[in-house]
Amino acid sequence: MIFTTQELVTEFADVVLQTHGKHTQFDRSASPDQASASCLIFLQSAELLPPSAAVIITSVEVANKILDHTDSFIVCVADLRLAQSAIKRRYDPYLNADLEWDAIHPSAVIHASARLGTGCRIGPNAVIGSDCILGDRVIVRATSVLEHQVVIGDDSVIHSGVNLGYGTHIGKRCVVQSGSVIASEGFGFAPDASGQYHPIPHTGVVVLEDDVHVGANSCIDRGTFGETRLRRGVKIDNLVHIAHNVEVGENTVLTAQTAVAGSSKIGKQVIASGQTGVLDHKNVADGAILLHRCGVTEDIPSAGMWAGTPARPLKEYVRNLALGKKVARLEKTLKTLQARLDDDS
Fold first, then answer.
1. Among this protein's residues, is 244 annotated catalytic?
2. What are 250-263's pLDDT values in tens digits?
3. In the list 76, 103, 189, 263, which could disulfide-bond 197, CB 3.0-4.6 Å?
4. Domain enclosing residue 163, as ranges
5. How far is CA 29 from CA 37, 86, 88, 91, in A?
6. Which NCBIfam families does the record match to this protein (predicted)?
C-alpha cells in the first residue's frame, strides 16, 4: 500500500513540529539499517542516517545535523518514541486488518445471536459464541474462541489461539496476544476432613478497560464472585498470571512472569519487573516500582522503588545486600582466626 507524506503530516499534525524537503510517498516503515528508498524510518541519531529513505522521522536536533546530507522528507517531532508508537501503528497493516483473508473467513463459526459491528474481521476456525457483541473494526484472528456473552469494544485485536471465557468484557483499542486465556476458572479448592480437595466454582467475570494490552500466553482468572478488573491503559507482558478478583490500576505495567495472587489490589502507574510475586489480599500503592524479583508479602504502603523478598525500600534492600557481603567476609576472617587458635593449642 502506498502512503503520502501529505496524509502523514495532516493526520499527525498534533505531534509534527516542522518538516523539511519535498513531499513524497512511502510504502512501509523500517529500521535505518534495513531502509530502502521507499521506506519511512525513525532516526535517533545522525550517525545512523542510511544511504536512502523516503521519510525520516526525527528530532529537531538530529534534523539540523542531517539536512545537508539527505534528500529525504524530514518530519521533526518532540518525542520520537511516542511518534513511533502512533505512526508505526497507523502504517503497519497487520495491526489494522487481516489482509490475507476475507472479512469473515468461511471456516469461522459465528452463533446466530452474535452481533458484529461494521468492518470486523474474523479469521479461520475462530468461534464466536452466543450473544457475543463485537464493536466496529474488531479483529479476531485464527482459532480464537469467544465463549457466550463476550463483549469487545471498537478497534480491539484478538490474536490467534486466544480463549475468552464467557461474560468477558473487553474495552476499546485493546490487544490480546496469542495463546492467552482470559476468564479461565480461578484456582480455588476446599479440603475436607480427609484431605481431599473440592473445587469452588468461579462464576464472576473479567473486565479489561480501554487500551489494555495482554501479552502472549498470559492468564487472567475470572472472579469467584464479582470481577477481576484491569483498568484503562494497563500493559501486561508475556507469561503473566493474574488470579481471581484482582484489580490492577490505570497505566500499570506488569512484566514477564509476574504473578498476582487472588483479591490483591495493584495501584495506578505501578511497574513490576520480571518475576515479581504478590501474595493474596495485598495492596500495592500507586506509583510503586517493584524490582529484583520483588516478593510482596505485606502491603506496599507508598510510591517509590521496592526490591527483594520480602519487599523493602530499595535503599534498605541495597544496604542489606552490602551488609550481607560484610558478614560473609567477617565469617571468613573468624574461621581463619579460629583455625590459628586451634593450631596454637
1. yes
2. 999 999 999 999 99
3. 189
4. 109-314
5. 11, 12, 7, 7
6. lipid_A_lpxD, PRK00892.1
Q: Which entry of 202, 241, 244, 292 is annotated as an active-site residue?
A: 244
Nearest-angstrom CA–CA distance, 123 and 185: 26
How far is C-alpha 160 from the geometric centre of its chain's CA atoms? 16
CATH number at residue 11: 3.40.1390.10
User: Same structural domain for residues 129 and 233?
Assistant: yes
**Residue 142 and residue 182 in one domain:** yes
pLDDT tens-digit readout, 117-175: 999 999 999 999 999 999 999 999 999 999 999 999 999 999 999 999 999 999 999 99
Name the band, by pLDDT with cuts 50, 70 and 90, for residue 323.
Answer: confident
The answer on 265 and 133 residing in a single domain is yes
Q: Is 190 helix (H, G, I), strand (E, B) or coil?
A: strand
Confidence band (pLDDT; 50, 70, 90) for 20?
Answer: very high
In this structure, what C-alpha cell is assigned to residue 84? 513511533
CA trace torsion 170, 226, 183, 137 (10° rounding): -10
Cell (9 digits) for 23: 513531499
Phi then psi for residue 343, to 5 deg, are -65, -40
Give the pTM: 0.85
> In terms of domains, do 65 and 123 share one?
no
Phi-psi region of 328 (alpha: psi -120 to 50; beta: other; left: phi over 0): alpha
Mean pLDDT, all residues of the chain? 94
What is d(CA 271, CA 216) in angstroms, rounded to the nearest whole number?
19
